[in-house]
Amino acid sequence: MRIIIKNLPNKITELQIRSSFSKFGEITSFLLPLNEKEKPKRFCFIGYSKPNNVINIMNNSYINNSKISVEEIDNEKYKKYKNGEPDGINIGSDMTNSRVYVTNLPNTSLDIKDEIYKLFKLYGGITNIVNDSFAAIVTFDTHVSALKSLELNNCEFLGVLIKVRMYNNNIEKRFNTFFFDFKSIINQYKSKDKEVLLNLKDSDLGTNISLLESHLIAKTKDFLVANNIDSSCFTERFDKKVLIVKNYDVMGSISDSFDCRVSVSPFGSMALLYFKDEENARKAYKSLNCRRFGDKAVYCDYLPICIQKKKILEENLEVKQKNSVNKLIVKNVPFQADKNEIKRLFSSIVSVVDVRMPVKGDKTSRGFAFVTLKNANDVTKAIEYLGTNTHLYGRRLVIDKANK
């Protein structure tokens, strides 16, 4: 017997749901779908070993002031949800998952695995602990024990508040966003050019700043690729002999005091510090991270290890090109921006055929635009160059392929 529970409270946990429904029989399966932000959706699936009266008792009852509905679900419909249909549903709560992911661990050179074990063993048997810089994966002997340990989220551990959540192998690994403040962008121009760029009467001021930031980000990504670093495929492991430093340009000659090889990005705002051993890298990290130089702070971290992506087969690539479109949708467009500014932004990278900005009844912008390009290759190029972190009038543009 399998049921679907709808209209659950927004902030409910699997443990709370189990406590309400386990009294009706042995639970053999439990699926709690997650949205794109890894937050629980307001429904779940529970499987029982035997038929029972859970529907008669719990349907139209209340959980945390939310009136829930409980009904039986057939295998065919259940399989569609399980396979990710519809709407690319992400199924969270795997009953075979007995691991939790612990982050925000204290910054220390000591081995704290024993302290982690003492803290988490209160919730059940532990079979393995893997810890690295600021994070750890704790494996329990049962799924329920892992769920109970989520109570440790935001608890104090060795002087810091740790974060605890269920570990998910499918979580996409991302690097810190390449974002540069206004001063960093302007400093790339010579003093004479700044006067032209910062002309407040210039109608293209917003577009100029946006283009300059996008260029800065693109060059920084090229710098990382040249150093065999792919920011789109980082793992959870770190190379503790390499530091990546932001705002490196404000450090001055202090970098000469470290025994390391330095590779600086084209604009000088980011650098890679290669050390001979982990001990020297650790000392540099403690000396530099969050250290202020004038009115700016230097941020550094150990370099995440990246893995090589699998090459796409030529046949699949050809099929993809045939099915691709030559139109972009640009979301989160500032209301003060017009289509000429959008066109100028994209024209600096690719050939723009047309720009269309839908409007409301009062002729004001609806906050998005469609950009038609010359071909599908230009769409890919525009997304790669501008789609990472392009801002216009302080708002981050969300750029993606438009539907046919």
TrEMBL record:
PROSITE patterns: RRM (PS50102). Gene3D superfamilies: 3.30.70.330. Keywords: Repeat, RNA-binding. InterPro entries: Nucleotide-bd_a/b_plait_sf, RBD_domain_sf, RRM_dom. One of its GO terms (molecular function) is RNA binding. Residues 1-75, 98-169, 326-404 form the RRM domain. This is RNA binding domain-containing protein. It comes from Hamiltosporidium tvaerminnensis.
